[in-house]
Amino acid sequence: MRKVLRKALDLALGLLMLPMVSLMSLMAQTPATPPAQTFSTTVYLDYRYFLSNAGPMTLEPADPTTAYLNNQFVFRRAYFTYESKISDNLKFRFRFDADNTANVTGISLTGDPVTGTSLKKDDKLRPFIKHLYLEYSDFLIPKMVLNAGMIETLTFKPAEERWGYRSVAKTLVDGYKDITGIEINATSADIGATLKYSFAKFFRMGVGYYNGSAYTHAENNQYKEVELQAQLTPLPGISFVGYMDYERQLPVAALPALTEPKGCTYKVDAAFEMVKNLVLVGEWFTYKNDLYQTAGERYDVGGWSAFGRYTFTPNKLALFARYDRYMPNSLVRERDMSLAIVGFDWAPYHASMKLQPNIWFVNYKNGVLYNASATTNSDIIFNLTFFLSF
Amino acid sequence: MKKIALIALASLTLLGGLLLGAKMVQIKGSDTMVNLVQILAEEYMGKNPGAPIAVLGGGSGTGITGLINQTCDIANTSREWKPKEIDQAWEKGVTPRNFVVAVDGLSIVVNEKNPVEQLTMAQVGAMYRGEIKNWKAVSEFQKPVSLYGRQSNSGTYVFMQEFVLGNKNYSTDMKEMNGNAQIIEGIIQDEGAVGYVGVGYLYDETHHVRKGLKVVKISKEPGGTGYVPTDKAAVDSGSYPIARPLYMSTNGKPKGVAAEFLQWIVGPEGQAVVEREGFFAVGEGKYKAANDKNFK
């Protein structure tokens, strides 16, 4: 029965693609004037200053008297997006993304000039393809939208759209690995298809079907990921979004009893936007993966986040604040961490050029013991974020 | 700790300074309406110097997005809100109220050298869908039809698509222009051209139809009587088939300067400006009743 279901799911993606393929062949036969095309760029970078003596958790040196890095410029992200409106209903998007997160975490603090060893791993910003998809609005029926290709997943959207400060920090689930170092099955883009439909202003749904390997890897197993999302908006400005995803995992030799391991994410977002210029959001999630075990017992990875922003003058000045709680191991609560962010968003000249000064307060247990005797570290980091979008 | 205190102090000083700025009513949206609303705003500000109002174009879609994202106080729209936009507004806690401030007879215009005097709604729709490619299909004129229209963020684009094209796609041969003025420039220079513009854009400074343009009569059915959008009686009675209300939308019941400005526009002084600029007044019918309800 399961095999039949899996084959049916595999077929679903192919079937979803069929109308797109037939449409593309039709378009190829129709001589047309060039479609409306747009190019846009978004860039953000930080000047970062570590205000606490302990330094940031990811860069804490073994000996603070040597190679202590207390400030840096970080070129965090550059997007280049090309969009082509092929017809009223059909749109194509291609997006290059470039970041150097790997370089930041890969810097060797014991390298040159202190010891003479090379710091050079790969200092360049590397572009990679983030989006490569077709979007078909009013697909089959009005208010149904199909996306196919390397597309945005449904996972982060509800929180990210309301947080609005991706330039300052990723949202809870998106940035989970960066903060805790724990891998969860969450990505912003993947190869597959999504189908979204708005039943009424009160209720909308989305389903996604992907290869499950995200945009960073080629698919390495036969299993696919399925996402389901439902949004309820009972009153203007009050929304609840429920989300879940599922993917079978490859068995591992260390856990021979697990022949069909699986991973699932459950997530709920609640948003309050009833007061003009004020957005308040709460998000909770848990990730359950059969392969995540401590001494033969499965542990869950989870967390919650509360954030808000208040806009004093649209496109000019806003204040934002956020508190995240990370629980990377439900069996070892000493590993829990917290992150608080406060800052403001200021566009002194034009809405496309912003200054976003912000402070991060990170609280975590020091070292790798993760027990009750571990000392607590609190890092305070000031970022002056420059946001440019043209 | 001293560093944190300094940063916090600097931030608060900056915030305080920025918050002391005067509150301006921001209006954004329809390019068909931008000139009209700018003139209305200038006249209103002349009489009420303490009421700053800024008016920008960008298209009805841009105005609606601005109202949903709360980056403007009033959205000018030359079409009704789409279901998708109503859903988005609901999600963001925005409850639009749509005030009808003028009526526009959407004008079908051709180059003055084109002998065509009258078209049916169906013929105009067929041209814009790309089904009629030469004027000889509707007249003795032997010229390829050259289509001029607006970009898809324009309310006029959407209105034409719904009411004239029967919700079908525009021909991919249509030249998508940035505004009404660009359409008119294109038609004056292109003998095979046909375009659609708001009635307020037909006239020059002397209040005559611009040189080089011809306004085509439109009939509902083949063989029916044709009317032009400059005929107020035909627009009021519904005989001219491509007339539409022009809206100014607010988030909920308007307040303060925005409410006073809207009251003035739909009142006798504002409506006199509307007529002077070539559009039609709202009148005493259903639109006035809807406006009165929206103010309550």
Notes on the protein architecture:
The complex is a heterodimer of chains A (390) and B (296). With 390 residues, chain A is mainly beta. Chain A has a single domain, classed as Beta Barrel (Porin). Chain A has helices spanning 2-29, 101-106, 157-163, 176-180, and strands at 36-50, 71-85, 90-99, 126-136, 144-152, 189-200, 203-210, 225-235, 238-248, 262-272, 278-294, 297-313, 317-327, 337-350, 353-365, 376-389. In chain A, strand 2 and strand 3 (90-99) form a beta hairpin. Chain A is globular, with a radius of gyration of 23 Å. Chain A starts with a helix and ends with a strand. In chain B, strand 1 (25-29), helix 2 (31-47) and strand 2 (53-58) form a beta-alpha-beta unit. In chain B, strands 2-1-3-12-4 form a 5-stranded mixed beta sheet. In chain B, strands 8-7-9-5-10 form a 5-stranded mixed beta sheet, sandwiched between helices. Chain B folds into 2 domains: 24-103 and 245-295, Periplasmic binding protein-like II (D-Maltodextrin-Binding Protein, domain 2), CATH 3.40.190.10; 107-237, Periplasmic binding protein-like II (D-Maltodextrin-Binding Protein, domain 2). Chain B is globular, with a radius of gyration of 22 Å. Chain B is an alpha/beta fold. The longest helix of chain B is centred in the N-terminal third of the chain and has 18 residues, at 2-19. Chain B starts with a helix and ends with a helix. In chain B, 39% of the residues lie in helices and 21% in strands. Classes of the chains: A mainly beta (390), B alpha/beta (296). Chains A and B meet through strand 12 of A and helix 1 and helix 4 of B.
CATH class of the largest domain in chain B: Alpha Beta
**Which architecture of the largest domain in chain B per CATH?**
3-Layer(aba) Sandwich
Cα separation of the termini of chain B:
53 Å
CATH superfamily of chain A: Porin
- Please give the radius of gyration of chain A in angstroms: 23 Å
Average pLDDT of chain B works out at 87
Q: Kindly estimate the percentage of residues of chain B that lie in beta strands according to DSSP.
A: 15-25%
Largest sheet of chain B: 5 strands, mixed
Rg measurement of chain B, Å: 22 Å
Helix and strand element order of chain B: HEHEHEHEEEHEHEHEEEHEHHH
The end-to-end distance of chain A, rounded to whole angstroms, is 52 Å
Top CATH class of chain A: Mainly Beta
The overall pLDDT of chain A, averaged over residues, is: 83
| SS field, number of helical segments of chain B | 11
Mass-distribution shape of chain A: globular
Biggest interface, chains and residues, is:
A-B, 42 and 36 residues
Counted up, domains of chain A total 1
